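Bug report

Summary: structure tokens for TIGR02453 family protein differ between web form and batch submission.
Environment: batch mode, default settings.
Steps: 1) Submit the sequence below via batch. 2) Compare with the web form result.

Sequence submitted:
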Amino acid sequence: MAFTGFPEAALDFYDDLEIDNSKVFWDEHKDTYRSAVAEPMGELTDELAGEFGAAKIFRPYRDVRFSKDKTPYKTHQGAFVAVGPATGYYVQIGAPGVRVGAGFYEASAERLAALRSAIDNAIHGAELEQLVRKYSRTGWEIGGDALKTAPRGWSPDHPRIELLRHKSLTITRDYGFDEVIHSAALVREVRKDWRVATPLIDWVCRHG
């Protein structure tokens, strides 16, 4: 089926789940999750797959084995299109609305070393720096895990030390409760933003 938007019931579901994150609540509302969240997310990502690739729609269950927080369910539904190791495009819906993102979400030691070497390079590093500056200027939030200090072997005075500190690097944009999330036009908006994010993905895939 074609994507027609996330219904209000999807936002209500996650509002309630944040209050009562229990198996009892889930079992009583799993049909709402299926019809208001999971199925529309599948339809949305299916319409984007021709250009960006097939998405992995994440399971709603949390891995609580090593966590102090034992609540069993995620309070958002995410989907990820991988184009490289832990690198690609992201979309999610939760109580705060809809969010899109892109970037690399983790890296092995070897890959991180390669990316930092590219950041150190005058040409490649300046290219990434310009991309990140442009995203920030146009309303994207720059995120990812970053060291508080300079990585081992790098000078704190490096001109791109802020980028070198990143262990992952992402950009995100919130649609929140904008009416577009309840309509078929959300496909167009996500497609547009993922296209804007593609130069970052390409840079990471070239150098990592």
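Above is the batch result. After comparison, the two runs are identical; trailing whitespace caused the diff. The first strand starts at residue 56 and ends at 57. The two ends are 37 Å apart (CA to CA).
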